[in-house]
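Aim 2, interim progress. The first record below pairs a target sequence with its C-alpha cells.
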Amino acid sequence: MKNTLLKDIGLAVLRILPALMMLTHGLPKFQKLINGNFEFGDPIGIGAAPSLFLAVLGEFICPILLIIGFKTRWVAIPSAITMLVAAVLVHGEDPFGTKEKALLYLVFFISIILLGPGKFSIDRK
C-alpha cells in the first residue's frame, strides 16, 4: 500500500510540475494568439499562424489538461511533439545546452505517455 501511494505521488509530481513549468513558455504564445499577433516561426512549413496555434496547443492548452490529469496520455502527445520539433528543427543546429531544455521536457512527456497519470488525476476518478 505504501509503495502504491508513493508511486502515485511520484506520477503526480512528474505530471504536474513539468506542465506548470511549460505554462511559462506557452502563456506568452497564447497571449500573442489572442491578441492577433501571428508573428511566429514556421519550423514545419505550414505557416506562422498554424505553427503558433500548434505551439499554444502543446505548450499551454495540453499542459493545463495535464495538470488536472484529464485524458493524460493523449494530451501529453502534442506537448511531446512540440518539444521534439523545438529540439530537432528549431534548435537543431544549436549547441546541446540550447536544446537541452526541450529534450528534458520531451523526456517528461514521453514518461507521462508511458506511465499514465496515477491515482491523483481526473482520469482515475
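The second target in this work package is listed in the same format:
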Amino acid sequence: MFGLGFGEILIIIVIAILFLGPDKLPTALVDVAKFFKSVKKTIGTVRDSLEQEMSVAEIKEEAMAYRRELIKARESLEKATNMHKIATDLNSIGDDILGDAPVLKESKDIYKEEQITFEKKITKETPNV
C-alpha cells in the first residue's frame, strides 16, 4: 500500500502508539480507515464518470461521422438532381435549335390522309399469249 514495506508500516504504527496513546489509537485507526474508504469510493466514482464521459465522447464521434456521411450523400444527391435538370434543359435547347420540336400544324401537312376500304381493286388483265 502506497509503496510501503512491512518494516515501514511497523515503524509508523509504533510512532502512532507513542504519540496517541493506547486509549486514542483505536478511534484514530477507525478515522483513518474511514478516510481511506472515502478516498477509494471517490476514486471509483471519478473513474466511473470518466468512463461514462469517454463513452459519451465515442457516441458523439460516431454521430458526427454519420452526420458527415449524410451530408456527403445529400451533396451527391443534389449533384445528381442538378445533372438531370441540366440534361433536360440541354435536350430542350437542342430540340429548339435543331427544329426537332414537334409542331402540330406542320405535322398535318407532312402526312397525307388515305382512305382505307375493303373493296377489291379492278386491274386490267393482259391476255397471256
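Confidence is low (pLDDT under 50) at residues 103-109. This observation will shape the mutagenesis plan for the next reporting period.
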